[in-house]
Structure formats: C-alpha cells, structure tokens
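Researcher: Here's the sequence for the chain we discussed earlier.
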Amino acid sequence: MRLNLLIPCYNDSVNDIPANLLPQRSDVRYFVSHQISPDRAGIEMPAELDRPDVIYSAFTGKGVALNRSHCLDMARQAPRGEDEICLMTDDDASYRPDSFDIVMDTFRENPDIDIAAFRICTPEGQPPYKAYPDKVKDIRKIPLSGKFYFSTVEIAFKLSSVGDLRYDEDFGVGAEKWPEGGEETIFLSDCLKMGLKMRYFPKEIVIHAYMSTGKARKSVRKAQMMRAVACRCRGPFSFEAILGSLRVLYRKLLRML
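Model: Thanks. This is the structure I predict for it:
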C-alpha cells in the first residue's frame, strides 16, 4: 500500500509546502499541483521540493476545483501499484509522524471501504475545528448543512475507486460561478452516487488552523451557493433545495432590516 498526498497550491503558496513535508519514506509520495495565474508565469518550483518522493507539475489556470482535478490527474498518470490511497490536502496543512500510518492502517483494517473521513486537529490554543461524531459511522449521504460537514484535508480514498471522477469547476475558490465553496461536498456526493462506500473514523490525522475559507460569515451569497450545491447533489425539488431557498429568503429579509 502507498499513500499519495495531493497538494494543490496557487502562485506563491508553493513556498509554504516544503515546511510541511515529513521525512522521506518508501510508501509515501507527494503530488504538488502548482496552479499559476497568467500574470505570474515566472514563478519557479522551490529547491526544497526537489526530492525523489515529490512529483511537481505547474500549469496555468484558475479555481481550486480545477487544481484538485489536476492533482488527481497527476496521480492517475504516475506509476501505480495495486493499493494506492490518496489524501487530498492543502498547502497550509501539516501532519504528525504517525498521521500517514493511521490513514493506511485504517484502509488495511477496513478493506470494504473506498473513502475514509477523519478528524482535523487545530494548533494548541485554538478551538476545535468543528463538531465531530464520537463513533465510527458509515456515510450514506453527504450532509449539506449543520455542524457536521466534511473538509477536504480529512478525506482519503482509493485511487482506483474514483475512476475518472473530477471536481465540479463551477464551485470552489476561484470559480466563476460559485467561488464561495461547495466543491468537496459535490465530489463526495458524486462518489456515493457511483456506489462507493464511505466511513467516518474519529481519528485525528491532520493539523490545520481553525480559521478557513469554509468558515466565512453567513451571507445571502453563501446561502445561494449552498442551495446550488443542494440542487447539484439532490435535485432542484429536493427537501434540501427547498430549505436552501427558504434560507436565502430569510437572509435577504435580515439584510433589509
């Protein structure tokens, strides 16, 4: 079994990645997808990424969903073994020495699953990242609202299971249509529609600061994005989409007061 960390970065954030790499090991690879805007074409790969376990690829484009899909393409095109596990991460996420073994051991002990969800640990002095269930839980539907939701950096999956699936480029930071987010929820929902099996494990695998783009303040625009996600995942006439429409109306009324 081998663990592949998929690390999308944008412009200068590539310089943050070397500090978060752990010592080399034969069963771990890092795929660094460096998305560069047209006006920053001269950015180069940091010398610290010149390691045998790091595969680097730069391309011109915009949008985190496109970047995450590029990460997946890199892993698909690289030499592969039978048991390739992917862990989608961020340029500002860091790991403990036991993090990678926790992920791989989880898949070894649960050979029936395609996707595993874990926990985020925040740095000392910061509040918990979010409310997590205390017990192992099979996930049959991706939650679209509420305190329990899935973040990209806590998700690992079998590369062979996701096939040619890509992230929806209409959603996520940098998207033209819905830059407020939603790309991870849609990706996981698409995975479950394919019949993949997902399970949550109350194990901490990654360190990430409490503040993130996913915790942006409530707004009409974010409510509209969440409704769009509900329509994309459940359908325009689903309960979640109708509830999303009511949430948009409520926030518009609040703004008028």
